[in-house]
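User: Assemble these into one structure.

Assistant: Restating your components, then the assembled model:
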Amino acid sequence: MDWQALRLSIELALATCLLLLPIGLLSGRALAVRAFALKGVVEAALALPLVLPPTVLGYYLLASFGAAAPLGRLWQELVGRPLVFTFDGLVLASLIANLPFAIQPVQRAFEAIDPDLRAAAACSGMGPLAAFLRIELPLAWPGVLTAMVLTFAHTLGEFGVVLMVGGAIPGETRTIAIAIYDRVQAFDDVGAARMSLVLLLFSLAAIAVTFLASRRVGRRLG
Amino acid sequence: MGGLEVELRQDAPIPLAARLACAPGELLALVGPSGSGKTTILRAIAGLYRPRRGRVAVDGALWLDTEAAIDLPTRRRRVGLVFQSYALFPHLSALENLTAAMGHRPRAERAARARELLRLVHLDGLEDRRPAQLSGGQQQRVAVARALAREPAVLLLDEPFSAVDRATRQRLYLEIAELRRLLAMPVVLVTHDLEEAMLLADRLTVLHHGQTLQTGTPQEVTTRPASPQVARLVDIGNLFEGRIAGHDQNRGLALLDWRGLSLEVRGPPPAPIGTRVPWVIPDGFVILHRRDRPSRGEQENPVPGRIEQMLVLGQSARLTLRPDHAPELPLRFSVPLHVARRNGIEPGVAATVSLLAEGIHVMAPDGPVGAAASSLPAPAASTAAA
């Protein structure tokens, strides 16, 4: 069992969730309630990581993270570390690969709120922030939770993008999914099986949490 | 002046030409078919819809004045709105739904005031229930109480009775009528149900395609419609055309020629003699003669004809009479069922009715034209040109 890889994966997943939570909330809600030009294009672009082969996404990220690319250079200047083959780069890649998982469930949850409730909140004298915190968020939170659980689980299991951008540097970029692959390559079937089981249990738990949360809310709101 | 004053004007996307006023303590009903812009007007008062041009003033304070670039956001308008769907916050209890609208009060007072309001709408004991645990009628009461919790300067009711069953609705009518006596603010009720409006409102405003056509007491609007269009909207079936034929000064009557039948109308002629005019006779002014004592001409405006149809609605019978002089113009009226039975009324029998002179209402010849008239623009235009 590669505990270092598991820890790295969990750190990566937590960092991704933490950074994507505000992004998912703001963009998911904006897509749900606002009408603006090119909304369809934005939605399509955000869904792209879902359909793109991970190696293709990883390739483009690798290309733009390199020291020759503007983004890679800018990061190097600002932070003093490269993006390629580092944990920083992994987090950034993971953010982009998980955008659809973090935004779409939130968007659906906010879309499901009756627009009259927002109007009723305004008629009750609530400002936009109060209405968001007291009315919208409590109603949309199962969607927000789903988004975070999906992002977490997906990050734990991500293979192609991580391998392309991060390589497999132990303690820096070797995640548990890559460690499993390494174990299989090294004919360590027991190690691979053990780590696979850990990932399987994690995924099952994630799905169970999401289901229970939405069912509880469904019962409560009837 | 106090109360609510509204003026809205735009051509698109929803045409609006609306003007209405509602005094403090008055209940004004906005009546019109679906799509006539009733809800849009209500939302414009609340600031949930922004018209191109308009003015909304409450007790002298401007909430909206497009010319002066004044447009208060909804949360600053002190408006209580009862939504058609109630729009109760589903995750909050009845009590919390009310306290959520009490941001203007000190926190310590809110719960006590909310309990008081729930008691007022007969919901004491149900404070902790969530909306999903309440019946439709109870949800409506929570919605009313929440609108009042805001201490609104204007109370707006958007089809508040449409989502409950008939029995509950009758009960809620009584409760609203009772509650109204305690309210000092203008109340605007939007409804497509004329009976509901007549039951609850002090005055009605009839609306069509975003245009306010007539405002008056329920009695005025339903017996003295301003135009054929209003007559159709308030469901006066007996809308005809006639010609002003003369003036009987001694008896204070005008004479109306209805396809060769002379009718007496109370008052001086409303238009020059010879003018073609639309006229109505509301249901209650058509009197059935006793068939065992045939008219010898002494009754008011007798119209002989043949009964075509009889619809029994509870203890009342709705009759359609084809007049002998113009069978293509059916007269519709109701009589108590026992009257119909005692007179042997059934489809096919001959019968005579009186059109009471005081009930005949002649409208202006060039009043706003209705749907039927506007579908025939060519002849109207050629007449005008001639």
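The radius of gyration of chain A is 20 Å.
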